């Protein structure tokens, strides 16, 4: 989607985990795979990046579930009080709607598996599903991918009727071999229908 672009802002949303060697290896592998000419911002403040990017600037956000995990960690929301996290989600959604950049965000699908055993897993599944639905509703295009390729037909790709300035695209699919870096909500899938 942005591979041919020369000037891409790549937003890596994962939080650093200095005491986790395996996580550091994953981050290093991601860094090595990125084109050297892309500008990488390792930050959880995706809203600021979107609002400060110039009109037409290609921005790749990788990825929404790691951003959400970071927000839940930073707002200490794993116990169920998501009021601070909800404010960060609303801030992201506001920036998503207002940006004039060409934004592509990567996310995972949370509705294709079992209901998690843990309360934190169910919380993550529910919030992640709502986040995906809200970002999709504010996007010009939503593409579902399964292990990389876009499936054929209407099931595989739908274009939302609401068009916004610029190009906002949400890629949803299981693109990585892990759900998020926290491991608490590992296997956190389900099909929430509510929206932020």
Low-confidence stretches: 154-167, 173-196
Major sheet summary line = 7 strands, mixed
Percent of residues in beta strands: 15-25%
Structural class: alpha/beta
What overall form do the CA principal axes indicate? globular
Number of helices: 6
Range of helix content:
25-40%
Oligomer: single chain
Count of β-strands = 7
Radius of gyration (Å): 16 Å
Task: Give the distance, in angstroms, between the N- and C-terminal Cα atoms.
Answer: 27 Å
Please give the order of strands in the largest beta sheet.
Answer: 2-1-3-4-7-5-6
- Mean model confidence by pLDDT: 78
Which sequence of SSEs, written as H and E, runs from N to C? EHEHEHHEHEHEE
Model description:
With 196 residues, this protein is of the alpha/beta class. The chain contains six helices and seven strands; from the N terminus they run E-H-E-H-E-H-H-E-H-E-H-E-E. The two termini are 27 Å apart. 34% of the residues are buried.
């Amino acid at each position: 989607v942005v591979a041919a672009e020369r000037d891409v802002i790549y937003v890596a949303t994962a939080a650093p985990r200095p005491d986790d060697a395996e996580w550091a290896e994953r981050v290093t592998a991601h860094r090595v795979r990125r084109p050297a000419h892309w500008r990488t911002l390792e930050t959880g403040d995706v809203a600021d990046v979107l609002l400060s990017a110039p009109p037409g600037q290609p921005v790749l956000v990788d990825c929404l579930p790691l951003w959400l995990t970071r927000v839940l960690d930073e707002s200490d929301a794993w116990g169920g009080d998501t009021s601070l996290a909800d404010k960060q989600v609303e801030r992201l959604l506001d920036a998503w709607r207002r940006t004039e950049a060409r934004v592509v965000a990567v996310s995972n699908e949370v509705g294709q598996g079992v209901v998690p055993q843990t309360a934190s897993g169910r919380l993550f599944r529910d919030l992640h599903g709502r986040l995906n639905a809200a970002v999709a509703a504010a996007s010009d295009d939503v593409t579902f991918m399964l292990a990389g390729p876009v499936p054929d037909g209407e099931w595989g790709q739908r274009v939302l009727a609401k068009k916004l300035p610029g190009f906002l695209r949400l890629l949803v699919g299981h693109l990585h071999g892990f759900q998020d870096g926290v491991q608490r909500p590992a296997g956190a899938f389900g099909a929430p229908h509510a929206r932020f």
